[in-house]
Amino acid sequence: MHVYDRLERFDDAIGWDEFIMGINLKRRNALRDVHGHVLEVCGGTGRNLPYYRPGQVTQLTLSDASRTMLDAAREKQLHEYPRLKAEFKNWDSQQLPVADNTYDTVVDTFGLCSVPDPVKALREMERVAKPGAPIILLQHGRSRHGWLNTALDKTAEDHAQKWGCWWNREITDIVREAGLHVESCDTSLLDTTYLIRARKPLPAAPCSNRAGSGDTDQRDV
Ligand SMILES: C[S@@+](CC[C@H](N)C(=O)[O-])C[C@H]1O[C@@H](n2cnc3c(N)ncnc32)[C@H](O)[C@@H]1O
């Protein structure tokens, strides 16, 4: 059984911690500009639902590998955010059953700690984003403080058993390995929390001969 299928009271378990750490404000800030058809992967119980603006987000596709988490998200949307047009998909974010270039924005908050292969998941996120689309990541992982990393490493195994989350992953290495085009990366909470704004590149413009002498070929760069 998937760890997250056991965490039926996920919101109760982490709500207070998130409040104390100001995570709700970080979610709001991360999602302020998301627009159009948004894909959220590893969407869990829909903790980001309050921050999607119905006028700005025309459709939300919230996906997660755990049916239990998805059911909680669906209930929340139905009762608390009925104006938001949303669908819920039981998808593995490492292998999304979606065509290339589908979404206007792709979001993942606190999912890279939990997927077995986070690099693969990021590559999928970029694949399904439209050219030029923002990819918003709010994540937690290793810090640049040695003493804190030692503590994270020591407790990582137990934490993962209980929560399904590896809190000592090297987020910047993962993003670099996936080849994402990062526009900004801000850290907080002793550098354990990362807000990364990336963007899928636009296709390269063809190189043309403006002089028009007729003796050159046109080629993709
Ligand atoms: C720490 S929770 C974060 C939930 C939510 N994004 C949030 O910000 O509260 C991680 C989520 O990742 C999901 N998950 C883990 N592995 C996954 C995978 N391979 N594909 C999709 N979702 C996955 C879990 O079911 C869980 O809901």
UniProtKB/TrEMBL annotation:
One of its GO terms (molecular function) is methyltransferase activity. It holds the Pfam family Methyltransf_23. SUPFAM superfamilies: S-adenosyl-L-methionine-dependent methyltransferases. CDD domains: AdoMet_MTases. This is S-adenosyl-L-methionine-dependent methyltransferase. It comes from Caulochytrium protostelioides.
